[in-house]
Amino acid sequence: SLSDQSPPHHGTFFLYFLTVNTATMTKGTTSFGKKHCKSHTTCRRCSKVSFHLQKKQCSSCGYPAKKMRNYNWSQKAKGRRTVGTGRMQYMKTMTRRFKNGFKEGTQAKKQSA
Question: What is the dihedral of CA 50, 56, 62, 67, to 10 degrees?
Answer without folding.
Answer: 150
